[in-house]
Design brief:
- The complex is a heterodimer of chains A (about 525) and B (about 220).
- Chain A has about 525 residues and is mainly alpha-helical.
- Chain A has a single domain, classed as Cytochrome C Oxidase, Chain A (Up-down Bundle), CATH 1.20.210.
- Chain A is built from 15 helices and no strands.
- Chain B is mainly alpha-helical and about 220 residues long.
- Chain B is elongated.
- The chains are: A mainly alpha (about 525), B mainly alpha (about 220).
- At the A-B interface, helix 6, helix 7 and helix 8 of A face helix 1 and helix 5 of B.
Chain lengths: ~525, ~220
């Protein structure tokens, strides 16, 4: 029978101050976890409102102006408050030092600052909502963003501030990975999740400052009328789009790369087999990070860039398919002849493989110039990026949450309810978004408040799907929170995995390891050594 | 927990590092990464600078003549000198000459303040003439299309740089305090070294801004 260690990071010190001002990376990870879950809830409510409005053409629930605000807030909150910090700042923070056998990240105070800056940025976002919200779409395109009467300044200021939180996390992780690994853990003996975080951190550090200056210029445009994005004053709105996507396309990989790292862990653990093509997976993360900086123009095929530029961007976009494909095939090869078991984290990993492949392939369609002219700004695009963001990142995040939940709290959730919730989320997701591929290919434009009657059945089906997904998430919330106090103790290594974090207690002590760990085996040496499962 | 006594290592070594060298190297790497983000932050403005002169080269040439090249040159010298004194302050603390180091830090602060004073006179002259960014531009003496764009770019770039000078001054002030309290020595001077790196970057950015804005040929 497993027990919870008497002294662990959760009860080492007490009182709210010991949490809000903690320097322990695990507690900061937990703070982030609750913060992003709150953001996910708010963004999810906006999503449900969007789908309710779109049940039928015309007005169902809200006015057209309100609708514009609701879809803007859904996008802005989900992107900037939830999905960008989700895996790195919550799970990455909790796990990175443990996976490399360190006591903490390199800069614990910067780590805490990152969370506080996140909260500050969120406050500005909330102020914006309270002061009349934003109706520009999450992309804040000029010139509309400089003209609308809604509260653009505080939202963009919030995004600017949130950028710093992301930079702090990324910078901290790069230095931590370079300088804090335990002796013996060379670069190519690191868990692939660490590789994923490393590639992510590079993008966070290199791309986010450009978003920062873009937001500053947008604010100056509104406050001081500098006019550099305003065609009426000799400025260039396309320059805004270049700036914005120079960040926001790499940001897509900030979202997906750590998710891919999680999938590498899950597939290997639940196939009890050495990961296939370790080096290729590691390098493909770096390759994706590198290519991510060269493809931003594929968001602007119809914005008036030159044909030559569009052709080059299209070609470079296809290149992303290569490292992504390398990963998918290596994961499949890992599973081949493995001893696969289907616990909840593995179910999410399999969902990821299925859904991300669809998301990735439709991304290739959209990267083709002629096809994009037809599908640009339709629901096909909406479906594509939801397959990548939700089908990819969120599935990986949920897989990771279920995988490391017993490490964080020391207790197991109900496997039975977890599987039911996973089924609801998977079915609901496909109902909601596969429908939108069809809608988009038939010509339904995105962001529209109303539509022609012929689209009604599919829109309604999609809305019903969003309810199915919501049921899945509600069930998940209930059993996860229930398990924090009531779950049965999980033991050190409930899945029989080989990465270092499973060698310490669940929950770990504040210093992560009671004895300074020694590097004795690689993260995927299942051919040499399969640890006992403690549950 | 791993058996070492807390008194066994120096006070400035944080508990999660195993030795001072690891800590110093981490700080240095972190600082260089931070400087990289600063370069990219200004990178956006440099791109804007590339676009607009390419569209209206004549206007940019005409408008730049309204900047005071003498004050710009003076400020360039002031800022380069402050980088020298900053470097000398670090060298002094490495040799444990704390008083000398403090004096150099004070001079660095004074030079930084002098830079801002000169900038203040330049700005107020332009505000007086109405050579302002975008919609606030009221000056009429510049030939070419959209001369206000030049001043949008000028104020955005020098303004953001000025904010960095202010930030640098506060960090230098903080290091000055720590040096006076005797917290820095040849054993441990990482904060001053990091501040120096930052200050040199602020200087470097100005060295790019000066020719781009004042010396268009």
């Amino acid at each position: 029978m497993n027990t919870i260690p008497e002294k662990n990071f959760l009860n080492a010190t007490r009182g709210w101050k010991s949490w809000l001002f903690t320097l322990d990376h695990k507690r900061i990870g937990v703070l982030y976890l609750f913060s992003i879950m709150a953001a996910f809830l708010v963004g999810g409510v906006f999503a449900i409102l969007i789908r309710l409005e779109l049940l039928g053409p015309g007005r169902n629930l809200m006015e057209a102006d309100t609708y514009n605000q609701v879809f803007t807030l859904h996008g802005a909150i989900m992107i900037f408050l939830f999905i960008i910090p989700s895996i790195p700042a919550a799970l990455g923070n909790f796990l990175l030092p443990q996976m490399i056998g360190a006591k903490d990240v390199a800069f614990p105070r910067l780590n805490l600052a990152s969370w506080w800056v996140y909260i500050l940025g969120s406050i500005f976002a909330v102020i914006s909502i309270a002061m009349g919200s934003v109706d520009t779409g999450w992309t804040f395109y000029t010139p509309y963003a400089t003209e609308t009467q809604t509260s653009v300044i505080s939202m963009t200021l919030g995004v600017f501030i949130l950028g710093f939180s992301s930079i702090f996390t990324g910078l901290n992780f790069i230095v931590t990975i370079h300088k804090m690994r335990l002796p013996g853990q060379t670069w190519f003996r690191m868990p692939l999740f660490v590789w994923g975080l490393y590639a992510t951190a590079i993008i966070q550090v290199l791309a986010t400052p450009v978003l920062g200056i873009t937001m500053v210029l947008l604010i100056l445009e509104r406050v001081a009328g500098i006019g550099i994005f305003d065609p009426a004053m000799g400025g260039d709105p396309v320059l805004y789009q270049h700036f914005f996507w120079f960040y926001s396309h790499p940001a897509v990989y900030i979202m997906i790369l750590p998710g891919m790292g999680i999938i590498s862990e899950l597939i290997s653990t639940f196939s009890k087999k050495r990961i296939f093509g370790y080096t290729a997976i590691a390098y493909s993360s770096l390759a994706i990070a590198f290519i991510s900086f060269l493809v931003w123009g594929h968001h602007m095929f119809v914005s008036g860039q030159s044909q030559l530029a569009a052709t080059i961007f299209s070609f470079l976009t296809f290149l992303v398919g290569i490292p992504s494909g390398i990963k998918i095939f290596n994961w499949l090869a890992t599973m081949y002849k493995g001893r696969i078991t289907f616990e909840t984290p593995m179910l999410y990993a399999l969902s990821f493989l299925f859904l991300f492949t669809i998301g990735g392939l439709t991304g290739i369609f959209l990267g083709a110039l002629a096809v994009d002219i037809h599908l640009h700004d339709t629901y096909f695009v909406v479906a594509h990026f939801h397959y990548v963001m939700v089908g990819g990142t969120v599935m990986a995040f949920l897989g990771g949450i279920h995988y490391w939940w017993p490490k964080i709290w020391g207790r197991m959730y109900s496997e039975f309810w977890a599987k039911i919730a996973a089924a609801f989320v998977f079915v609901g997701f496909n109902m909601t978004f596969f429908t939108q591929f069809i809608l988009g290919s038939q010509g339904m434009p995105r962001r529209y408040y109303t539509y022609m009657d012929q689209y009604q059945p599919l829109h309604a089906f999609s809305s019903v799907g969003s309810w199915v997904m919501a049921v899945g998430f509600i069930i998940m919330g209930v059993y996860l929170f229930h398990s924090i106090k009531r779950g049965r103790p999980a033991g050190n290594n409930p899945w029989g995995a080989l990465t270092l974090e499973w060698e310490t207690t669940s929950p770990p002590p504040t210093e992560n390891f009671v004895e300074t760990p020694k590097f004795s085996h690689g993260p995927y040496d299942y051919d040499k050594n399969v640890p006992e499962r403690t549950i | 927990m791993d058996g070492h006594e807390h008194s066994a290592h120096p006070a400035h070594l944080a508990h999660h590092f195993s030795e001072p060298a690891q800590q110093a190297e981490s700080a240095k790497m972190g600082m260089w990464l931070f400087l990289l983000t600063e370069v990219l932050l200004f990178g956006g403005l440099f791109v804007a600078y590339t676009v607009f002169p390419a569209w209206n080269p004549d206007m940019f040439f005409n408008a730049h003549k309204h900047l005071n090249v003498y004050l710009g040159t003076l400020n360039t010298f002031v800022l380069i000198s402050s980088s020298v004194t900053m470097a000398l302050a670090i060298r002094s603390i490495q040799l444990d000459r704390r008083d000398v180091s403090i004096r150099y830090l004070v001079v660095t602060l004074l030079l930084a303040a002098a830079f801002l004073v000169v900038k203040y006179f330049e700005y107020s002259h332009k505000i007086h003439l109405g050579q302002l960014p975008g919609k606030f531009y009221t000056f009429t003496g510049i030939e070419g299309t959209n001369p206000h764009v030049f001043f949008s770019v000028y104020f955005a770039m020098t303004g953001l740089h000025g904010v960095h000078v202010l930030a640098g001054m506060s960090v230098i002030g903080w290091v000055l305090m720590r040096t006076r309290r005797g917290e820095l020595s040849s054993e441990y001077y990482t904060p001053m070294e990091m501040t120096g790196l930052y200050w040199h970057l602020v200087d470097m950015i100005w060295i790019f801004l000066f020719p781009l804005l004042y010396l268009i040929g």
